[in-house]
Each structure stands twice: as structure tokens, then as C-alpha cells.
Amino acid sequence: MPEFNWRSANEATCEDLEAVFDAGGARKCRCQALKVPGWIWRDTTQEERDEALLEQSGCGTSGSSSSTSGLIGYVDGEPAGWVAVEPRENYPRIWARQKAWMRMDPDLDGVWSVTCFVVRPGFRRQGLMYELAAATVEYGTKVGAHVLEGYPTEPVPGKTVIWDEASVGLLQVFLAAGFEVEASPTLRRRVVRHRLGATTPDAHPA
What digits encode the pLDDT tens for the residues 48-60? Predict the structure, then answer.
């Protein structure tokens, strides 16, 4: 059985981060779609996105950076995947775009958003997304998050989902990690939450 482990990106090398992002749409987007207040392809250059990912992740700092933007998953020691997870307020696009369902309970404290998954070719269809989703729960507990929130898609039964479409996460992956559906704002998109600790009095029970 392959061995899976993970580490926060600020405890990983930039070479490991680059290895995960060196394919497909991730190579171009660099997990910046929700980090840019405007439209990513109009308002940023590739160089700016490249630099932003390295800075936000804190890679190559051997943990001396106190913050990061995600986790890197390893299979038998090889960097194989990425999941973006950090405080919801760190995503300007969530607050700027006309999708109120991405900012439910805006005054709720301690909400961390799980926004993006990347799995390297060669490691796909091996359940790695499930491992990464579970890692966010472990990490969120470690850093003191109160609520983890995701915005996955629920595939149409029998329809194949292309990888870039699945980058927001699949509903069944979040459910397997203990998340629960909070809202179904569109035919296929869901808002899911995992309550990890204390929340404000206004928090709604699951």
C-alpha cells in the first residue's frame, strides 16, 4: 500500500510545490482565482501568479513563515497533491464576486475555506483527494480553526468529471471527511462545513 503523508506548504520545499503545480490548469492558475479581487486572467500576469503562490505558501522557509495557503500531500515521499486551506478572509474574490453563497454567515469567526485541489498526473484515481480533504481536518484542528468550509461540485450521476472541473473538490470527498451540506446554491454546487471547535453564538447547528 502506498504511504500517504502531508505537510503544510511552509514546511515544504518550493521544488515540491512546483512539482505539484507543473501540469494542467494549475500551472497557469497557481491557485489564484479566489485571491485576486478582479478577473484573474485580465488582472494578473503569469509571473505575478507564480510569485504570489510562492509568497502565499511560504514554501522554502522551513517553517519559519508563520502562515501558509495550503498543504502538500506526499505518496511514498513524492509530492503528489495540494489542497488550499486558509482563513476565509484571505480570499478577496469570495467577498468581491456576486455569489453570496460563498460568504454565508459573514460574521462567523474562525471560518477557514478549503477551495482548491491539485493532484499530479500519475497520482490520480488513487483516492488522493480523499486523503487531502482529511488532512484539512487534521490541519484545521491543529491551527485552531472553528469551521472548515468548502464549495464542492456534485457530479451528475454517470457523467465523467474532468480534472479541472473537479478542482473545487467533489461532494463525496468532503462528506467522507466529515463535512456536512449547508446549502445547495446551484444545481451542482454545494456549500459544506465541518465544525471543529467553538463558534460564535450566532453559529447555526448542523
Answer: 999 999 999 999 9
Note whether 71 and 6 are within 8 A (CB).
Answer: yes
Total of domains in the chain: 1
Phi then psi for residue 200, to 5 deg, are -70, 160
What predicted TM-score, i.e. pTM, was given to this entire model? 0.91
* Residue 205 belongs to a domain: no
Write the CB contacts of 36 (distance below 8 Å, at least 6 apart in sequence): 43, 44, 92, 93
C-alpha 81/C-alpha 10 separation (Å) is 15
Closest by CA to 114, choosing from 98, 91, 92, 144, is 91
CATH number, domain containing residue 8: 3.40.630.30
- Sheet containing strand 78-87, strands side by side: 4-8, 70-75, 78-87, 111-119, 147-150, 191-195, 180-183
